[in-house]
Amino acid sequence: MQDIKLYTITIFSENTVGLLGQITSVFVRHQINIETLSVSPSAIKGIHKFTITVFCTKERARKLVLQIDKRIDVLKAYYNTDEELVHQEIALYKLSTADFLKLTSVEELIRKYNAVVLDINENNVVIQKTGHYEETQDLFDELSKLTGVLQFIRSGRIAINKSKIERLSDMLAERDEKFKDIQ
Known about the structure:
By secondary structure, this protein is of the alpha+beta class. It is built from six helices and nine strands, in the order βαββαββααββαββα.
């Protein structure tokens, strides 16, 4: 039996209306739940980058990427393990100001988690923590025990591979060479 683990699927495309629906339909057909999803412009002008995390086997990740690659608006898709990436998430925590100020260890807590106080007013304190899922979850768990958390939100994963350049750059250069040969 193959091991199920967390894979990060990276998809490069132009910013095309409806592409997100096409991509998510591939996951639905394979009955794989998306854990996190983040979309943003990439380092390459005009190209957007989808970063999606899923729990599955390596073979299922490979098949997902092959299916996604078949989409006409997708330039290229890849899958990676955590070891092949540098990745982060950002989390925001809203706490009661009164409860937060009652803590005797506010400075220690902020330093321990390398967190930042983004906003403080008479009603609420908003704290930001950037890190891996486990780190943002640990702070949530501790704050829940100490003061209670009024609101909590965590972003999807953002990630870059550890290779020297974006792998899409190689693929685009190769495609441009082939296109020159045809003309």
